[in-house]
Amino acid sequence: MSDTLALISTFLRVVEVGSFSAVAQERDTSQPTISRQIAALETHLGCLLFQRTTRSLSLTDDGRVFYEHALRTVETLKEAETSVGRQRRKPSGNLRIGCAVVFGRLHIVPRLPRFLQRYPEINIDFSMNDGFTDLIEENLDLAIRVGVVTDQNLIAKRIGITHRVLVATPEYLKKWGVPKTPADLAKHSCIVYSRLAVGSKWTFESDTGIIDVPVSGRFRVNNTEGVRAAILQSLGIGFVPAWHFVENEIAKKRLVVLLKDYQPTPQPINAVYPSRRFLSPKVRAMIDYLAQEFALDPQLSDRPSV
User: Fold this and answer.
1) Pairing of strands 122-128, 93-99
2) Extents of the domains making up the chain
3) pLDDT tens-digit series, residues 233-264
4) How far apart are CA 126 and CA 63, in angstroms?
5) Distance CA 254, CA 233 (A)
6) DSSP state string for 122-185
7) Architecture of domain 85-162+267-295
């Protein structure tokens, strides 16, 4: 088994560097030795991993598939090693995190300086994207997601709470009126977030149960940053997490909260990571840090933010 792991290690390094001779130089050995190791791995697997020419080296289809699995396996072994003994107390390494754009900009990035100061041996690779992020495919250690996580291949730990609010500017309401019930939204221009899984439908709660309201408007956008900006520019009514507004826009009455009697159930903010036996110290450090930070923020905790 140890021999196979050594061959896999060589294979991964060849993929990263793109050259047999460069890896040989790194390891103070010869190019033919590296070639023999790759050939031995190919024999063990019963497939060709590289297409070789005198000028180029590229992965075969089998090579690409094996690379993805091998990389995850080695990462898991590293996590196992650092989860025991002296290294447990010393989070280190490159931490790859995924998050939606607005949440990352407003609530993660501003908190990173203190985290990096606390853990000087951790580097962060931050991916901000409103689209669906596959943690395994994108090789992420951790993602921050709002809402219930249903993927059984992922572990989710609640680190905060999202309170959604219906808001508009006083300028918009002065021109178009104030909705009194969810049904009144049919007469209004609503800002539609086109990536929303439920489509152009907003869900409210009342004493009589759940109310689903189809909405429409003259402005649709596929980015939550655009939704936030459009609300503040009086383009319509928005239905968004209260944490979109960190400059006291609601307290300063730049925005008005509507239909307070119909607010939906808060949603969890989860730290999500691949289901593995071991959780690396660097991932655990970030999860614990964000949970502590969010607990102090009324917009992200169990305390109502508005």
Assistant:
1) parallel
2) 2-82, 85-162+267-295, 164-262
3) 999 999 989 888 888 888 889 999 999 889 88
4) 27
5) 10
6) EEEEEEE-SS---TTTTT-SEEEEES----TTEEEEEEEEE-EEEEE-HHHHHHH---SSGGGG
7) 3-Layer(aba) Sandwich (3.40)
